[in-house]
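User: Fold both of these, please.

Assistant: Here is the first one.
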Amino acid sequence: MLKVRVVKIGGNALERPEWLAACADALRPLEPVVVVHGGGRAVSTLSRRLDLPVEKQDGLRVTTPAVAEAVEMVLAGPANRLVVAALRAAGLDAIGLSGVDGGLLTARPAPGGLGHVGEIAGVRASLLESLLLAGLTPVIAPMAPGPEGGLPLNVNADEAAAAVAAAVHAAELLFVSDVPGVQVDGAVQPALDAGDVETLIELGAATDGMTVKLRAAVAALRAGARAARIGDVHMLGHPSAGTRVLAAAAQPA
């Protein structure tokens, strides 16, 4: 089995070419890698240009069908192209995909009144493994067809990365953004127990996008990923950087 890392690149950073180039350079020694990217800021910008609502609940985008079309335009278009180009410039043989391509992702409508939003129901891990064995670096735009087809469902990139990491039994899942890690009382935590995550969220120590990342990390660990960290680009070269989320210990029978 390949020792794969799954790396989620925060969408807000895609508008900073220098940061993206540095991230791509740091990924080169970590092959084989699967990259999942966001694009939230660009989606919001396009939505405002189109007079569409920009609304989030607990860090997740409320998605009308019109907003879902904007998500598809951004994620499967310029956002994916930016990441692929940066990785190829750094020497990685990157190939851009959306979750629709090759049936890579399947999704079901997510609960909670978020609209045209999906949660991952399945990942075609064999397709990713074939690409990795061929020396390619898959770059995934997180959209997925729903059970009835039609307009792809908007899937949060952190949640998509977690599902991919679980499906390929990733050696590590890395959530890379411009935040150095999970901060509690102003200090970056080197590690957090999965069992403490919901308490942190309830106390307000983790909010919005960090809430989604923490829950996604816990879900990935429970479903097959072997490790998870949250932090900035320094994580890619330093195994102790960022905040490691530790799987809950198994309870004795």
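And the second sequence with its predicted structure:
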Amino acid sequence: MKVARAKSLPSQILKALGTGIALSIILSSPIGTRRLIKGIRKEWKDRGVNTALSRLRQRGSIDFHSQKDGSLKVVLTSSGKKEARIFALDDIEFVPRKRDGLWRVIMFDIPESKKNAREALRRKLIMWGFYPLQRSIFISMYPCETEIAMLKELFGITDKDLALLTTHSPPNLLALNSHFRIH
């Protein structure tokens, strides 16, 4: 599967569709199309959107469904949903909030059938600076419940597959203090 750059027009369309924004293109009304496009993104130009939609359809990321009113509904295919998830993952940032004295321990046992989700989760936790206690156990000294819930939802990870615990005394405290530069 070829994935577009995160800032490209096709990626913006996939992100919009992936977040639940419905795109309808009114075939009989160029004015309606321009108005719709202007409402979503000022920088989306008619020709650019048409070209991007055509390319997305050619590679199987989107499909068109005719509506009774003469419009076309643009929908994500299963591969398009996967691409949209990748772009959505890029948008989830972790901004450390004020420490509350608790440590967050993230433990996961994600099945092989969701290997890509497991690896993306692992990469994101490392990128956010979480301490890898083991390959599937990470620790943070900052509140991160919201971000972890977003990742779980994004990848369809259940409570059975991932648990977030809070504790006052995590394992390997010396290594954690060094990692988070606590003196």
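Residues 9-90 form a domain with the Arc Repressor Mutant, subunit A fold (CATH 1.10.10.10).
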